Amino acid sequence: MSVTFIRRAVASPKKALATAAVAAATTGMVLAAAPAQAATTSTGSSAQAIAHQMIPDAAQFNAFSKIVEHESGWNISATNASSGAYGLVQALPASKMASAGADWKTNPKTQIKWGLDYMNSRYGSPAAAWNFWQANGWY
Fold this sequence. Notes:
Blueprint: H1 3-11, H2 13-27, H3 44-54, H4 58-71, H5 108-123, H6 126-136
Helix pairs in contact: 1-2, 3-5, 4-6, 5-6
Pfam family, one: SLT
Protein name: Transglycosylase SLT domain-containing protein
Keywords: Signal
């Protein structure tokens, strides 16, 4: 590639890509898209699937899900700017989740385990925690 082509690529990426594609086609080369990088964090739907596996009882899963939806929107890295609460279940301090696993910052399964243990020990169940949340706006 020439320096002129590189300068054009920086100035006009769409035009440069089209020019490269034409050049490649005329020389018999094939341009292929690079493979997408694997996601490093779980999406909300995969965190929900994990929770569903860990909480087979439908009523308890629904209650857990409602709390998580309100607290973090199923975002494993959700952080409350004012309090520092973190994760799916908004643990405060966040480091409390380390008792469920060293990977608590990035692993939805670890966060779910900690959240379930918390709800069960403090309220008796996710459903009871949800009842408290509805009455108080927090749990």
